[in-house]
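Exercise 3.2. Students should predict the tertiary structure of the chain below and write it as structure tokens, then compare their answer with the key that follows.

Predict this chain's 3D structure.
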Amino acid sequence: MRKSAAWSFLFALLGALLPSVASAHTGVGDTAGFSHGLLHPLTGLDHVLAMVMVGIFAWQLGGRALWLVPTAFVALMAVGGALGVAGIGMPFVETGIALSVIVLGAVVALRLRAPVAVAMAVVGLFAIFHGHAHGSEMPESAAGIAYGLGFMLATAMLHAAGISFGYLIGWASEGKGAIVARGAGAAAALAGVAILTGLI
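Answer key:
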């Protein structure tokens, strides 16, 4: 029963991800208002995969990393968003976002152990790229601020989904849970390569 629940969750997650477009920051659609900000991160495969990988990475590290790593991402994503709103240019934003999926997927797949401060720095670096991409699309108004708040909340929810996924697969199978998590990381890294090369 436990194994079937874990596999059902995994297939539901994959099913939700497959219809998404590869990039959540195409410059298309509304970028004002809380509800648009809340929904926007869920429309891009790159953002969804990176956020879920941050959550699984935090789960793999455990302890204080469970909340410090996702918090670092959200905080520095806000910094990147502020840079984008202010019109401060940043090179290789789309490349940085694709690399975030590859690197975070690989970190999860290889089950790399890192000090919490290092993990926070790594996810924080990538968070600036994600934030900048979306901040550069936001209007400098109250509606833009509401959009940013919705976007940050949705990002935190995706982190929580990754942490929950880690706990679920660990609960479902002590022996195979780590293998499932590592397989998810490998799949995310491959998807990141496909995004980087324009295949998806």
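Discussion points: Residues 5-24 have pLDDT under 50 and may be disordered. The radius of gyration is 16 Å.
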